[in-house]
Amino acid sequence: MNKLNATLSEVLDVEPIGSTELLPATPVTKVDDDADFARDNIRTLIEKGNLAVDGILHVAKESEHPRAYEVAANLIKNLSDLNKDLMEIQKRKRDLAPQSQRSGDINVDKAVFVGSTTELVKFLKNNK
């Protein structure tokens, strides 16, 4: 590699590189950043869309034109799709989270006692 380095330096008329040591790759997870960015964008679009729906419904009522109602219906459908996308981001973010961060995912393989609390109290009193 040194000979190649020297030859390239000579051909390109630059100083040779001191060391060509590779650094270990550090895993960078930007899932949270991307999810938060997408979530903020979608929320902004939903807020602006709600304002636009109010305006287009006002125009549709005043003009009583079928095209205005069609545009309003399409905008409402797009807003409902954005709401679904917002919920999907939350679901995907939760699915991609490490297992240790999830809560409520406890599997019990061997239970010591299965029953109600009153049955447990009776059981404990009988054992004493």
Give an overview in words.
With 128 residues, this protein is mostly helical. The protein has a domain at 29-97: Helix Hairpins (Orthogonal Bundle). It is 67% helix and 0% strand. The protein has 4 helices and no strands. The protein has helices at residues 2-12, 31-63, 66-96, 117-127. Helix 2 runs antiparallel to helix 3. The longest helix is centred in the middle third of the chain and has 33 residues, at 31-63. The mean pLDDT is 81.
Structural class, by secondary structure, is: mainly alpha
Question: How many strand units?
Answer: 0
Oligomer: single chain
Q: Which residues form runs of ≥5 with pLDDT under 50?
A: none
Query: What's the overall geometry?
Result: flat
Q: What is the average per-residue confidence, as pLDDT, rounded to a whole number?
A: 81
Cα end-to-end separation:
79 Å
* SSE topology string: HHHH
Strand content: under 5%
Tally of DSSP helical segments: 4
